[in-house]
Specification:
Strand content: 15-25%
Low-confidence stretches: none
CATH class of the largest domain: Alpha Beta
Structural class: alpha/beta
Strand order of the largest sheet: 4-3-2-1-5-6-8-7
Radius of gyration: 20 Å
CATH superfamily of the largest domain: NAD(P)-binding Rossmann-like Domain
Number of domains: 2
Bound molecules: nicotinamide-adenine-dinucleotide
Order of helices and strands: EHEHEHEHEHEEHEHEEHEEHEHEEEHH
Number of strands: 16
Distance between the termini: 28 Å
Shape: globular
Mean pLDDT: 98
Largest sheet: 8 strands, parallel
Number of helices: 12
Length: 334
Amino acid sequence: MGVNGYGTIGKRVADAVAAQPDMEVAGVAKTQPNFEAHTAVDLGYPMYAAIPERAPLFAEAGIETAGAVDELVADADVMVDCTPSGIGAENKTMYASYDTPATFQGGEDATVAETSFNARANYDDARGADTVRVVSCNTTGLSRLVAPLSEAYGVETVRATLVRRGGDPTQDSRGPINDILPDPISIPSHHGPDVQTIFPDLSIETMGLKVPATLMHVHALNVTLESDVTAAHVRQLLENQSRVYVIPEGFGLDGAGTLKDFALDAGRPRGDIWENCVWGESIAVEGRDLYLFEAIHQESDVIPENVDAIRAITDAADAAESIERTNRTLGVGL
Ligand code: NAD
């Protein structure tokens, strides 16, 4: 497996793949020999120049390259494209020209791939495909809830308000730094249609805001179900989902800050939280209306899904096997 674009998502995907017993990192492609390039070399990942003319910069920085990105594409069984939004679509023809199946990230339009992907919801749609798009952090978080709720109760409609971090911790040019922005101002936001790339028949309306925070997103959800339920039953259902962590009362995990601290204390790599974090106390039911709050670690919730997408695209395992293996090797489950 090769990674093209070794940034926030790419470096996590590479490490997660390296942890799998049935996968190997053939190499990673980078545009510049920055600190991440040095770390990749220290970790033993063969380094490829994503932009061939820049290969001399790597040599000047003391980094040996194994070749240009197209050599990695030729060698790899699967390419995982983790480049910034829009670049993946540009790279698509390169992957196709070598007949190398490719997975893309949620920043790309859904049209980039044959199918959008969430392991819990539609793994089988990606089996044997040539191109797959792992949906965004927010869409992954929403899909992990919609799938079990639909199966257990039926979903009439989902209304979600997404309070989104202004940028990742390393994105010092993003913001706001002192504001609260409806984003996008127009309602509904684009997030609902993105969830519909996984659940085409789902009724969903979303609204988004951006806030001066870098740690996580928080979703406020109202789901009208098709059958009567109790909060206790929903809670049990969510506790049984391997990639949902229902935060127990009394843990003092009252926000994104404490959740991140908890992950660091637990020895999670980079303090990553692969699971949706649903506040147990927030799960409430009024008639058929379910309400809850959840936090989503934008930098890492898509990482287990990326691993599963590789197994799906190579048809190497069914959904249950892949999810179990990914969870076990990474240590998913707080
Ligand atoms: P990033 O900027 O952290 O990393 C992208 C990397 O690709 C950088 O190292 C950049 O130098 C490199 N790059 C740029 N042009 C390239 C090219 N032509 N060839 C190869 N590499 C190139 O971005 P990211 O946050 O990792 O996002 C990558 C994708 O994942 C996007 O589609 C994004 O929407 C999606 N995504 C991001 C997050 C998040 O919160 N960061 C969450 C889920 C999905």
